[in-house]
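Fig. S4 source data, part A: sequence.
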Amino acid sequence: MTVPNTPPDPGRIPAADVAGPAADAAASAPASPAPDPYGPPAAVDPFAPPAAPDPYGAPPAFGHGPAPAPARPLLPELRAGALTALVCVLLGLGVAGLWVWLAPRVPLLVSGNRILYADPEGEQRAGADAVFALIGLGAGVVTALGAFLLTRRRGGGIAVAVGLTVGGLLGSLVGWKLGVRLGPTSDVVAHARQVGDGHGFDDALRLGAHGALLVWPMTAMVLLLVLSAAFGKREEDPPPYWAGTGWPAPGTLGAPPAGGALPPGGYAPAPAPGPAPVPLSEPGSAPEPPPGAEPVRPADDRPVPPS
């Protein structure tokens, strides 16, 4: 039979009853009011550090690296291209002079009222075309090397390449037309009447293979591309897309802190283990009563009511 109003066992006193003044103060502290969703917005601290990126958010999109370098002004680019083309046209004058000087001549012979070839099986016309192509090849090498050396510090540019191509084609045309005018006359009949019967003269300088006009611009363009790829100015490569602050740095993997503040690497290291909790009392012994509490009488001193 259980006696009514029996006090609890001293070894089973709940821990909440002996927590001490700290628990009483925490319980008596007023609770912070919940934020009003319809109230005015909270003031923003202008000196607060910016919020760290979310390490668990979506990775940055491909191609969104650093801002590209500013584009070059248009006027200097046009000036460089026009100057390159003008130099090539002026070199066309030299090409014309070399062609007239080096090209083999086609000999003709006046026989009565006929004009005959002095060497019917000669290859002088094919030789003239080959000489023009070789001169264009040399002009392309010279112009491409000069354009690369003069524009290497500024990094070349599309205007230089276009000016070199257009200028090489114009220089070939100038060399062709001017070479024909500087060579023997193209009026063969008048020249035959001038020299008389039985005498020989040279035929006009002609370019039979018009494809030789493209040797200069093609050589210059290919050589410029090769020089730019091998010895051109190098631009700094952008950093990879995973090098942003939202990705963890090597060796910094760990759980993010509860406050949301992250180190520069993007992830916080795992926290060090704290000290083990101290038990309130040893097993089998009674806990100490809080200060000012009425001592609990031992079980032997409890009065036994009459049966």
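Fig. S4 source data, part B ends here. The chain has six helices and three strands.
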